[in-house]
């Protein structure tokens, strides 16, 4: 199993796992992600994947520049760890995590942080995987998010969620608010589709596109990449199909 590091030198030649496919739509999605990554490399972003055609990768960066509402110093933060399909159950996730551990120790970080959830949720690696690898819960925020840490320096101060995100609200109090970033290549299109559903139903809707890590740390949901709010309250981080979102609206607005 060969692991490839995607960087400035090879990013245009290598696929980035999230959006695989040679059709126009997937090429556009992949380019959106790559454009985001090119800017983040200067902030310490690392993206590693297995040398296979599939969604098998880990992405991480220093906490000081991470696009998530957490605060702390000298920690590495895992943005995403994804092993899908036929690659599951082969120890690949552990191998990818070990790459992050090795890099973090080399950079003399105090530890590694990751956001997960109290129960298994879409787009979040199962909490049990991290606990099995000696991560411990150091903070939590409603409705289901937890911040886990693997400490190398036991005396280091633990990172935490920001005060703003713990309130579970956003400034816009009418209808739906979508807060997203291009850290995920699927967000821009689907947020557009979901917001159009709101407009067609005459439901007030606001879209906030996060442009830098400061905005993400101040305004982002605990997931970072996407937050869906209704009447100012956080409801979910899950990116949904149009059909599922229609059902979500019906259950929410009774």
Features:
254 residues; alpha+beta; Aminopeptidase; Glutaredoxin; 2 domains; four-stranded mixed sheet; 7 helices
Quick overview of this protein structure:
With 254 residues, the chain is α+β, with helices and mostly antiparallel strands. The protein is 29% helix and 27% strand.
Counted up, domains total: 2
Residue-averaged pLDDT? 92
SSE arrangement, N to C: EHEEEEHEHEEEHEHEHEEH
CATH hierarchy class name of the largest domain: Alpha Beta
| Overall radius of gyration | 18 Å
CATH architecture of the largest domain: 3-Layer(aba) Sandwich
Classify the beta-strand content into a percent band: 25-35%
Sheet with most strands: 7 strands, mixed
> How many DSSP E strands?
13
Q: Report the end-to-end length measured between terminal Cα atoms.
A: 51 Å
Number of helices: 7
Name the structural class: alpha+beta
Shape: globular
What does it look like?
By secondary structure, the chain is α+β, with helices and mostly antiparallel strands. The protein folds into two domains: 3-164, Aminopeptidase; 167-252, Glutaredoxin (3-Layer(aba) Sandwich), CATH 3.40.30.120. The protein has seven helices and 13 strands. The chain has helices at residues 24-40, 92-106, 127-132, 163-166, 187-200, 213-219, 242-252; strands at residues 3-6, 46-50, 56-62, 70-71, 75-83, 111-117, 136-141, 145-151, 160-161, 176-180, 205-209, 226-230, 233-236. A seven-stranded mixed β-sheet has the order 1-2-3-5-6-8-7. Strands 11-10-12-13 form a four-stranded mixed β-sheet, covered by helices on one side. The chain has a two-stranded antiparallel ribbon with strand order 4-9. Strand 2 (46-50) and strand 3 form a beta hairpin.
């Amino acid at each position: 199993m060969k692991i490839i590091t995607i960087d400035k030198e090879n990013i245009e030649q290598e696929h980035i796992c999230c959006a695989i496919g040679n059709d126009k739509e997937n090429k556009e999605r992949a380019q959106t992600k790559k454009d985001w990554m090119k800017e983040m490399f200067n902030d310490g972003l690392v993206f590693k994947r297995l040398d296979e055609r599939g969604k098998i990768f880990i992405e991480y960066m220093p906490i000081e520049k991470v696009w998530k509402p957490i605060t702390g110093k000298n920690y590495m933060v895992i943005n995403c760890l994804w092993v899908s399909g036929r690659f599951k159950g082969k120890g690949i996730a552990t191998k990818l995590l070990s790459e992050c551990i090795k890099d973090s120790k080399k950079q003399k970080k105090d530890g590694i942080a990751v956001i997960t959830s109290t129960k298994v949720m879409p787009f979040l690696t199962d909490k049990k995987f991290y606990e099995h690898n000696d991560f411990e819960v150091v903070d939590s925020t409603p409705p289901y998010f937890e911040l886990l840490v693997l400490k190398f320096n036991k005396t280091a101060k633990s990172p935490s969620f920001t005060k703003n995100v713990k309130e579970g609200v956003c400034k816009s109090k009418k209808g739906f608010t979508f807060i997203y970033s291009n850290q995920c290549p699927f967000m821009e299109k689907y947020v557009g589709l979901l917001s159009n559903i709101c407009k067609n139903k005459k439901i007030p809707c606001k879209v906030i596109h996060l442009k830098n890590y400061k905005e993400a740390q101040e305004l982002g949901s605990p997931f970072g990449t996407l937050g869906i709010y209704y009447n100012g309250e956080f409801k979910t981080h899950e990116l949904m199909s149009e059909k599922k979102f229609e059902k979500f609206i019906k259950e929410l607005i009774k």
